[in-house]
Amino acid sequence: MILTPVPLLRKIELALLAPELSRAEVEVGCAMAISYDCVSVFVKPHYTEVARKALKDTHIKVISMIGFPHGGVTTATKMYETQDLCQRGADELALVINIGAVRDHDDLAVKNDIQGVIRTARGKPITVILETPLLNIEDKARACKLAETAGAVSIMTATGFAASDAMAADVQLLRATCPSLKVRAAGGIHSRADALAMIEAGAALVVLNDVEKVLSK
């Protein structure tokens, strides 16, 4: 096992979400997650079972994506995805919030979206991804409260596919708005210093696209 800096021990998750990733690359990524003793691996729905097999007999969780990457599919579609991925062996699910509905102030639609997924998941933990780079401060705080009210167990700053990065200030805002929710920092973590800044800001976990590259900087 590769040594991870002490402040980041058991706080790293690996995102294997790039659109071009093949089965073999997902398997290599899972092996990397084992080497760095990651907490979880995020995968696209198609590779849920691949990751589950690659991580068999480890403590590393498989987290599958719902409504990825833009959150704009219907609630019914998200609920079907949830049922399908639970059957395929996902340990947890990460739901991309309906970003447009948040900006529309259509809070009922956003809340119903999240609650529909939570009901369908039947106890599996749900993380709501807010995509903070695309929201203003008021929208970020309101979306965070909606996730909390709907019953999510954690929130995540970003998918990593927005044009700009999530920042430590986003983590601070979300922690201050909903102290009961665990915050996952993702999007724009390019170095060890970035990861440590997110932890210092209050993130419980940091989600990296390339663990080896980030920790070497």
Write a short abstract of this structure.
The chain has helices at residues 23-35, 48-54, 75-87, 99-103, 107-121, 137-150, 168-177, 192-201, 211-216, and strands spanning 12-16, 40-43, 61-66, 92-96, 126-129, 154-156, 182-186, 205-208. With 217 residues, it is an alpha/beta fold.
Please outline the major beta sheet: 8 strands, parallel, barrel
- Report the mean per-residue pLDDT as an integer: 95
Number of spatially distinct domains: 1
Kindly state the percentage of residues in helix. Answer: 40-55%
The level 1 CATH classification is Alpha Beta
Strand composition percent: 15-25%
Give, in spatial order, the strands making up the sheet with the most strands.
1-2-3-4-5-6-7-8
Spell out the blueprint of helices and strands.
Elements: E1 12-16, H1 23-35, E2 40-43, H2 48-54, E3 61-66, H3 75-87, E4 92-96, H4 99-103, H5 107-121, E5 126-129, H6 137-150, E6 154-156, H7 168-177, E7 182-186, H8 192-201, E8 205-208, H9 211-216
Parallel strand pairs: 1-2, 1-8, 2-3, 3-4, 4-5, 5-6, 6-7, 7-8
Written description of the protein model:
This protein is an alpha/beta fold and 217 residues long. It has a single domain (6-216), classed as TIM Barrel (Alpha-Beta Barrel), CATH 3.20.20.70. The protein is built from nine helices and eight strands. It has helices at 23-35, 48-54, 75-87, 99-103, 107-121, 137-150, 168-177, 192-201, 211-216, and strands at 12-16, 40-43, 61-66, 92-96, 126-129, 154-156, 182-186, 205-208. Strands 1-2-3-4-5-6-7-8 form an eight-stranded parallel barrel, surrounded by seven helices. Helix 6 links the parallel strand 5 and strand 6 (154-156). The mean pLDDT is 95.
